[in-house]
Design brief:
alpha+beta; Glutaredoxin; Antioxidant, Horf6, Chain A, domain 2; 2 domains; 5-stranded mixed beta sheet; 6 helices; binds benzoic acid
Length: 219
């Protein structure tokens, strides 16, 4: 297929999540009024009744309790009708017992897909790519993932980064490579001489030098 120059808006980390009103499997949603005081994971899948998407949606449904524990609501999306969504949800429930009991946007006019850069025309002009937007309680976009049509996402990683974002916010620390719950966290690098001396003299769990210091979180 010849490459197209058509481009849609690509939201960026730190932007306010573009507002929308959409029809979902749980009724209408207006993002700016939805799930106040909670995190939102907004994710797209290319199409209902397709294999990779079925494994991913099942993954979100099966890990729902972990999202709940992180004060997070899920919103799915694909460029399919709500009737297609309902039939797929029911089909998967009948076949596997897994129930997609969270709103799935029926984005048949592609409005939300275009707003969130989920429609990437050189990958597909008709299917959303596999996107994940992590939206904090102030409705700021904090982390974005885009995967192509042919590779499923990793649910452990989705939950890991959600936990990392929340832990970073709560304690004012940064998260090192492969950080997971219980690991040491990074003390923000010093921005003045006093802080530099404090990092040098301080009793920390791990220290490479004043600019790379890790501590244990005391919850
Ligand atoms: C899938 O979910 O298996 C899929 C959907 C659209 C394109 C390719 C794969």
């Amino acid at each position: 297929m010849e490459e197209t120059n058509v481009t849609y808006q690509m939201p960026r980390i730190g932007d306010t999540a573009p507002d929308f009103e959409a029809v979902t499997t749980k009724g209408k949603i207006k993002l700016s009024e939805y799930a106040k005081d909670k995190w939102i994971v907004l994710f797209s899948h290319p199409a209902d009744f397709t294999p990779v998407c079925t494994t991913e949606m099942s993954g979100f449904a099966q890990r729902r309790a972990e999202f709940d524990a992180l004060n997070t609501e899920l919103i799915g999306l694909s460029i399919d009708s709500v009737f297609s969504h309902l039939a797929w949800v029911n089909n998967v429930r009948e076949n596997t017992g897994v129930y997609f009991d969270f709103p799935i946007i029926a984005d048949i006019d592609m409005n939300v897909s275009k707003l969130y850069g989920m429609l990437q025309p050189n990958e597909s002009t008709t299917h959303a790519v596999r996107a994940v937007f992590f939206i904090d309680p102030s409705k700021k976009i904090r982390l974005i993932m885009y995967y192509p049509l042919n590779v499923g996402r990793n649910m452990d990683e989705i939950l890991r980064v959600l936990n990392a974002l929340q832990t970073s916010d709560k304690y004012g620390v940064a998260m090192p490579l492969n950080w997971k719950e219980g690991d040491n966290v990074i003390v923000p690098p010093p921005t003045n001489l006093d802080e530099m001396q404090e990092r040098i003299d301080g009793d920390y769990e791990e220290k490479v030098d004043f600019y790379l210091v890790k501590k244990k979180l005391n919850n």
